[in-house]
Amino acid sequence: AAIRRFGLGYAPEDFGGLLHYLKRRGFSEEELETSGLVKRSAKGNLYDIFRHRVMVPIIDVRGAIIAFGGRVLDDSKPKYINSPETMVYHKSRTLFALNIAKKSKNRRYILCEGYMDVISMHEAGFDTAVCACGTALTPEQAKLLSEVVLSYDSDEAGQKATERSLGILGSTTLKVSVLSYQGAKDPDEFIKKYGRERFEMLLNGTANPTEFQLKKSKAKYDLRSDDGRLSYIREAIEILTERGVSPTARDVYAGRLADETGVSKQAILSQLNGALQAAARRSYRKEQRDLSKEGIASDIRVPYTSSGESALGAANAARQLAVAMLQDPEQVPYVRARLDM
């Protein structure tokens, strides 16, 4: 079923037959190298980079094969080899199995860690499973999704991947949740051990990103000690000041923090409000710095002789004016008549 759906194949050691076939079809050696299927050895011979690997075709939403992933069947390294970027394949803008997932009536995409995770999820009936082509999710890939459930492995690498993806998805308007499970290292193992129905129940009860981050933070500290409780509160407040956490959610989580640490809810809310005000000031300063780099800061009201960040707007405006005069020297007299050079 996986072969029928995903077109999996196996690349044997001898690549000569396919190489001969492609040459016979009129492809030059240069074109074969550009395709990302072959490389040239130190002796100048072409060889198959995917030999002795299960071949996973990467198919775009129009149904065209644009690249391949190759996985070893033993313990040799590297475990995966992927096609390089080509004229038709841009990994930062491609999601594996999106060509199948987009046909589903369900708009909740399950974001997995790798090709095999996606394939096993589809075989279990979860037909909206996809994964990033590349090492991590990109903003371009996120734009291809609607509602997202992060379903990475439960090991340290999977948790780090979850945090990285939350960082990307947090800047979007997507509804995001995080799958949390125990007793298995990945979704495939969980389904094999506990069954599809239990995994679906788990999927329907997924935690939101704030819940996931607070749970992960709490596990780091010993709440029996004063230092542990204070550290947990400090980190939890950083999480609650992030964009996308509603005032209502902050109030609910502040109450939970009070119950977990024994610190009054009023004290936690006071600290949280202070952190929110500080975050707003930082955001405003960053916005002004970004604007000043374009020479258009809205609140630059300082003489050019001022120093520090406050003069960035004037300095950038002067630099842009110098560039304009270099590009059109005929305007120099016009500028000279109006400014003290």
General description of the model:
The chain has 341 residues and is an alpha/beta fold. It contains 15 helices and eleven strands. It has helices spanning 2-6, 16-24, 29-34, 98-101, 115-123, 139-142, 156-169, 187-194, 196-204, 209-218, 226-240, 247-261, 265-292, 312-327, 332-336, and strands spanning 9-11, 38-40, 46-48, 53-59, 65-72, 80-82, 95-96, 108-112, 129-132, 147-150, 176-178. The strands form three sheets. Strands 7-9-8-10-11 form a five-stranded mixed beta sheet, sandwiched between helices. It has a four-stranded antiparallel beta sheet with strand order 1-4-5-6, with no helix packed on it. A two-stranded antiparallel sheet has the order 2-3. It is flat.
Write the topology of this structure:
Elements: H1 2-6, E1 9-11, H2 16-24, H3 29-34, E2 38-40, E3 46-48, E4 53-59, E5 65-72, E6 80-82, E7 95-96, H4 98-101, E8 108-112, H5 115-123, E9 129-132, H6 139-142, E10 147-150, H7 156-169, E11 176-178, H8 187-194, H9 196-204, H10 209-218, H11 226-240, H12 247-261, H13 265-292, H14 312-327, H15 332-336
Parallel strand pairs: 8-9, 8-10, 10-11
Antiparallel strand pairs: 1-4, 2-3, 4-5, 5-6, 7-9
Helix pairs in contact: 8-9, 10-11, 11-12, 11-13, 12-13
